[in-house]
Structure formats: structure tokens, C-alpha cells
């Protein structure tokens, strides 16, 4: 089924994506997604997705070059990022040249994490392979960060438990209140605190293996 583009520029850009190795099922034209609060629907010009995982890899907006410095356009891109809920997803603004017969019909801008438009060489627009590799690297970095945060929390909890147990043992020397039943209950309480961390580490390990295998398959 042929897509009816609103402009010749959108059609040419779609053809350019195909020339960079993007498959037709990875290119969504005017996809619709809701804001986090469900208050409104957003429709960027293009979205790049992972056809298998159905995850957004990039958002692309096409505008005339005279609108590049328009504050409304910048806010529109920021709203896309906020609605998707991924602060690191690449957002590109492709400017259509108003100069007739311009050998470079497009100019490329990207939205930084700080919310600023940064001009780039259009010839450096990422290929599909590069974009998926970048998404995989971001996912691995997020997993690594979560693992570090979990480890830090686990260490703090472990030191706290060790201090509490040490105080209990010291107190027991004088008061002799630690019965077998109470020691068993104490051990069970420690286990209930430790088990969630073990499950968290296991889950992060599974996520890491998935990300690593996905990158290897590419």
C-alpha cells in the first residue's frame, strides 16, 4: 500500500531513509501516541521503530528552514520526548531548504538532552544499524547504572543489618534474651530483606543478557 505523503519533502526523506538501510516496517509515517496523562495525541512526521521489539528508536519532524528557530517547533519536539517517556530517545528536526535546486535539500538538527537544537551534517544521519546499536548501548548503560545503584543500596542495608545484629549479640551477653525461636525469627527477617535484592540482581542479569544477545545478532 502506497503512502500518501503531505509533501514532496516527506517523500524524498522517506526514500533517503530506505537508502540508509531502514526497512519499510521500521519507518512509521505520522504515528500516533498519547501523552503520559492521556490528555492529547501526538503525531510526529516520522518515527523509527524496532520492528521486532516495537520500541521507538527515534522521532523525526520535517519543517521548512524558516521555522527552525521557531520556539513553538522546539517545544513540540520537547513534548514528543516527554510523551514517549524516554529522555534519551534521539529527536531529529529535518529542515527543508527554501533555495531552489539546492544540492543539499535538507539540513539536520538534533535535540540535545538539555533541550537545545544542535546542527549536524545531514550526511551523518545515522543508518538503521547505527541507530539500533546506539539504542542497545543506551539500554546496557541504563542496566549497568541500575545494577550499581542496587549494589550501593544493598551494601548500605548489609552494613545496617550487621550493626543491628552486632548490637543484639552484645545485648544478649548481658540479658540472655536470644532464644532459639527468636534467632530463627531474626534469620527469617534478614532473609526477607536480602531476597528482594537477589531477585533484583537476577532480573538485571537477564536484561543484560537480552541486550547483549540482541547486539550480537545485529
UniProtKB/TrEMBL annotation:
Occurrences of domain Type I restriction enzyme R protein N-terminal (ranges):
19-86
For the keyword Transmembrane helix, the answer is yes
Which segments cross the bilayer?
A: 157-177, 183-201
InterPro entries assigned: HSDR_N
Q: One Pfam family for this entry, by name?
A: HSDR_N_2
- Keywords from the UniProt entry: Membrane, Transmembrane, Transmembrane helix
Name of the protein described by the UniProt record: Type I restriction enzyme R protein N-terminal domain-containing protein
User: Which organism is the protein's source?
Assistant: Klebsiella pneumoniae
Amino acid at each position: 500500500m502506497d503512502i500518501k505523503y503531505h509533501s514532496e519533502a516527506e517523500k524524498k526523506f522517506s526514500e533517503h531513509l530506505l537508502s540508509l538501510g531502514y526497512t519499510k516496517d521500521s519507518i512509521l509515517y505520522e504515528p500516533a501516541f498519547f501523552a503520559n496523562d492521556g490528555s492529547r495525541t501526538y503525531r510526529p512526521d516520522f518515527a523509527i521503530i524496532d520492528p521486532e521489539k516495537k520500541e521507538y528508536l527515534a522521532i523525526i519532524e520535517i519543517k521548512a528552514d524558516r521555522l527552525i528557530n521557531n520556539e513553538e517547533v522546539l517545544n513540540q519536539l520537547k513534548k514528543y520526548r516527554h510523551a514517549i517517556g524516554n529522555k534519551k530517545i534521539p529527536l531529529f528536526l529535518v529542515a527543508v531548504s527554501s533555495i531552489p535546486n539546492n544540492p543539499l535539500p535538507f539540513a539536520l538538527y538534533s535535540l540535545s538532552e538539555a533541550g537545545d537544537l544542535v546542527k549536524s551534517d545531514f550526511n551523518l544521519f545515522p543508518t538503521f544499524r547505527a541507530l539500533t546499536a546506539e539504542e542497545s548501548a543506551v539500554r546496557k548503560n541504563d542496566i549497568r547504572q541500575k545494577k550499581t545503584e542496587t549494589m550501593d543500596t544493598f551494601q548500605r542495608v548489609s552494613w545496617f543489618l550487621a550493626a543491628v545484629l552486632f548490637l543484639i549479640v552484645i545485648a544478649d551477653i548481658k540479658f540472655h534474651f536470644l532464644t532459639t525461636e527468636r534467632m530463627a525469627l531474626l534469620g527469617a527477617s534478614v532473609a526477607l530483606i536480602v531476597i528482594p535484592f537477589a531477585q533484583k540482581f537476577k532480573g538485571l542479569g537477564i536484561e543484560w543478557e537480552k541486550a547483549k544477545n540482541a547486539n550480537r545478532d545485529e
